Amino acid sequence: MTGTPELRAVAYIDHLAYERRLSPLTCKSYARDIRILLEHLGTDDLAQVQSPNIRQAIAQLHGKGLGGRSLARMLSAWCGFYNFLIRRHGFQHNPCHAVRVPKSPQKLPHALSPDEATRLLQFPVENILLARDSAMFELFYSSGLRLAELAQLQPDDIHFAEGTIRVLGKGGKARIVPVGEYALQSLTTWLALRLQIIKPDVTALFLSQRGDAISMRAIAYRLKSRARQQGLHQNVHPHILRHSFASHVLQSSGDLRAVQEMLGHAHITSTQVYTHLDFQHLAKIYDAAHPRAKKRN
């Protein structure tokens, strides 16, 4: 069991990156959470850490204002780290297993209404960058992609005849998702223009003005800017279009399992949050239409 805690943490992050094939952003998040653990434990002998030590660290972080969701994510990272130490370094127990974090109220994801989504996506395509933006935003909403999934797409991932796209999701898991007609039309327009700016050896579907692969930050910025120009005053980010896709498909179909497959959720519990959004939609209709619903002024 040789090695400092820091070296073991590096080995674990390498394991996540190269063996489990988690995304760079996910690995960065794990590394940050484990660094916080090591700072709070203040010991070089991780094998001697017990559950009370973990509970104390959780309590201190909660006292600094961290909520239940953040603490649960952090505890999950710590637990995975100790499982790794058990498998690879001969540790005998995982001190995180008996620890619970404070619960926090469930925060429902925000989604655009269908009218707001339509307003966001209806803008004149007057140049090559607007053609690219139209294709990106239509694809976000049409197929419910994560930001990282869209950023790493390549032209060969699109299957126009079948109306589908191949997506590489979390953990390197591939899935096939449908693409709507509007998104396919926008993609066709963009692919023809893309050839004018692409640099040699660049394989990304979506490009920057310089012909390189566009960054995730640039995608998020373009979407937020477009939302403001379209008169949407809320903070519209890529995941809002994913939430909107999920809630609108669920409202229309009621098929939770199909939405789970299209979103690439490993567990149905991750998808069930959208049933609450669907209920909110129905409740608003009821309140507006039923003569004995909520009192109106």
UniProtKB/TrEMBL annotation:
According to the UniProt record, one GO cellular component term is: cytoplasm
Q: Tell me the superkingdom of the source.
A: Bacteria
- Domain Core-binding (CB) per the UniProt entry, residue ranges: 3-86
Is the keyword Cell cycle assigned to this protein?
yes
Record key words, sorted? Cell cycle, Cell division, Chromosome partition, Cytoplasm, DNA integration, DNA recombination, DNA-binding
Q: Which Pfam families match?
A: Phage_int_SAM_1, Phage_integrase
Q: What is its main location?
A: cytoplasm
**Matching SUPFAM superfamilies, A to Z?**
DNA breaking-rejoining enzymes
| UniProt record, GO biological process | cell division; chromosome segregation; DNA transposition
Report the residue ranges that make up the Tyr recombinase domain in this protein.
107-287
Would you indicate the residue range of the signal peptide? none
Q: Where is the active site?
A: R146, K170, H239, R242, H265, Y274 (o-(3'-phospho-dna)-tyrosine intermediate)
Query: Where does this protein reside within or beyond the cell?
Result: Cytoplasm
Provide the GO MF annotations for this entry.
DNA binding; tyrosine-based site-specific recombinase activity
Q: Which InterPro entries match?
A: CB, DNA_brk_join_enz, Integrase-like_cat_sf, Integrase_catalytic, Integrase_recombinase_N, Integrase_SAM-like_N, Recomb_XerC, Tyrosine_recombinase_XerC/XerD
Its biological function?
Site-specific tyrosine recombinase, which acts by catalyzing the cutting and rejoining of the recombining DNA molecules. The XerC-XerD complex is essential to convert dimers of the bacterial chromosome into monomers to permit their segregation at cell division. It also contributes to the segregational stability of plasmids.
Family from the record: Belongs to the 'phage' integrase family. XerC subfamily.
Which NCBIfam families does the entry link to?
Answer: recomb_XerC (TIGR02224)
**Quaternary structure, from the entry:** Forms a cyclic heterotetrameric complex composed of two molecules of XerC and two molecules of XerD.
The protein's matches in HAMAP family, at most eight in alphabetical order, are given as: Recomb_XerC_XerD (MF_01808)
Specify the protein name.
Answer: Tyrosine recombinase XerC
What does the organism's lineage look like at the top?
Answer: Bacteria, Pseudomonadati, Pseudomonadota, Betaproteobacteria, Nitrosomonadales
Q: What is the name of the gene encoding this protein?
A: xerC
